[in-house]
Structures are given as C-alpha cells and as structure tokens.
Amino acid sequence: AQTVTQSQPEMSVQEAETVTLSCTYDTSENNYYLFWYKQPPSRQMILVIRQEAYKQQNATENRFSVNFQKAAKSFSLKISDSQLGDTAMYFCAFMKFIGFGNEKLTFGTGTRLTIIP
Amino acid sequence: EAQVTQNPRYLITVTGKKLTVTCSQNMNHEYMSWYRQDPGLGLRQIYYSMNVEVTDKGDVPEGYKVSRKEKRNFPLILESPSPNQTSLYFCASSLRMNQASYEQYFGPGTRLTVT
C-alpha cells in the first residue's frame, strides 16, 4: 500500500517570502502521479499542481513549483512571493497509474500554512 | 459551469437516523468517489464507482453504502449513523486515466455531525 508523509503539521511565513512544504511517499510502483491540493478556510479542495512520475522536468504553475526527486521519493512544493491568499491547508497526494481500476488518491495528513502580513 | 455538487452542505443528526448525502456531476465523468476528512488523518476513500452499476469499497467503507444508478449521481448512504461518522465528506469525479485525463474534481464538502 502507498503511504504519503507530510512531516510539517504547521508552517508560517511572512508575506512575499518563499516557503517550501515537504512531502515524501512510499511506493513500489514506477508509474504514478503526484499532486498538491490546497484547502482554504472555505474547505474547497483546489488542485495546485501535479507531476507525472515519468517526467523528469519539475512542474511549475505560476508562483508554485515542485522539486520532484523520484529516487528519494520526495515531492516538495515551493511557493514563491507568498500572498495572504495562500493561507490554507496543503495536502500532498499520490495516485498510481491504474487505467481501468480504482483511481484512488492517497493523501498525506496536511500542512497548515499561514502567511503573515 | 463544470462542477460537482453535494447536498446538504451541513447536517446535524442523531445516532441511528438514516441519511443520504447526494453528489452530482455535470461533466459526464465515469469515475466517482467519496472521501472523508478527519483531523490528523487527511482524506481517506470510502467508496468509489468506475461506471454505472459498478461500485467497490475504498479504505474505510464500514457503515456506508453507495449506489450508481445514473452516471451523474453517486449518493452516500448512512443507514444507521454513529458519532464516529462525524466528519467532513467530499465527493470527487474524473474522466478515466486511459483517456489521459485523470484530474479529480471535488465537490464543496458536507460537514456531518452525528450526536
């Protein structure tokens, strides 16, 4: 079974600074997908960024980027120029490539990020 | 607008009183799933469905039932709710991975309290 570990329950950073959220996972699969979801106080789950394991290039989405280290099974999220609206719970999630089977997302326990004005 | 809707958004009920949380998507997605979110545990899958009339258990199915009679709807049924089912529930849907579209779209969540 896959497991996802987020070792930082809470983090805080000053507005406009850069912050990195860590995530490690354990799997024997070779083909899989990794995601970061944001959950603001509204509780909506919002996809921030995704990474296909077969791609060596790290994914980026505007101020959000990842550092994907497949051999180390590490998938950290970097938020540059942090904004007050980035305050949220962030979940790392894993999905193995199944095709016709259960496309279950396995989530970490989350990191609560607070951006300080 | 493409979306996943859930109703109700908030529900307070008593132990043993049957309830249904509805989930509907308008994106013609084949795959649908229910998750529950609890503090310190992240989100865990309850049940999933790969298509109409095809459902199966996730990681924490005890105390829940589902059905998939129509492609767009995937209700979650609690026949006899207990306090340990107090949680935040999310419905999600996606096209199939073999169609090269695997992003899961989440509903807004249902906060359930069982007293």
Descriptive overview:
The complex is a heterodimer of chains A (117) and B (115). Chain A is an all-beta fold and 117 residues long. Chain A has no helices and twelve strands. The N and C termini of chain A lie far apart (41 Å). The relative contact order of chain A is 0.34. Chain B has 115 residues and is mainly β. In chain B, a hairpin with a 2-residue loop joins strand 5 and strand 6. The radius of gyration of chain B is 14 Å and the shape is globular. The interface between A and B is medium-sized, with 24 and 28 residues.
Rounded to the nearest angstrom, the distance between the terminal CA atoms of chain B is 36 Å
Strand content of chain B: over 45%
The low-pLDDT segments of chain A are none
Mean pLDDT of chain B: 93
Largest pleated sheet of chain B:
7 strands, mixed
Structural class of chain B: mainly beta
Low-confidence stretches of chain B: none
Question: Can you count the beta strands of chain A?
Answer: 12
Helical/strand content category of chain A = mainly beta
Shape of chain B, please? Answer: globular
Write the element-wise H/E pattern of chain B from the N-terminal end onward.
EEEEEEEEEEE
User: Roughly what fraction of the amino acids of chain A lie in strands?
Assistant: over 45%
Number of strands of chain B: 11
Order of helices and strands of chain A: EEEEEEEEEEEE
In DSSP terms (H or I, runs of 4 or more residues), the helix count of chain A works out at 0
Supply Rg of chain B: 14 Å
Radius of gyration of chain A: 14 Å
The biggest sheet of chain A, with number of strands, parallel, antiparallel or mixed sense and barrel status, is: 6 strands, mixed
